[in-house]
Fold this protein.
Amino acid sequence: MTAAKQATEGQQTKMEMVYDYLMGPRFRQRVEAIAEAFKTMQEDLEKERKVIMKQWAKRETQIDRVMQATVGMYGDLQGIAGKTLQEIEGLELKVLDARKESTDSSDS
């Protein structure tokens, strides 16, 4: 037998083994296990996303409440002190309106 003929015979045997493996139960079980793992990962990711979104919403509400209280206190002081009270960076009307607009547009 020549080396080329032996290589061809070996190839045929390997092809048959691969075909048998692909058509057999082990391959199917492995693919099912992979699919199940992906499904579990996707479900976990969705749960994490919901938890994080809930935390972000809570934190955003807290920040809004603190900002409203700070602006209210600053407004009270301006009412008492008048123009002698210096402007505070971040509490100007322009900045507050821009923040409100960006929050409103992200809610849509």
Q: What stands out?
A: The mean pLDDT is 85.
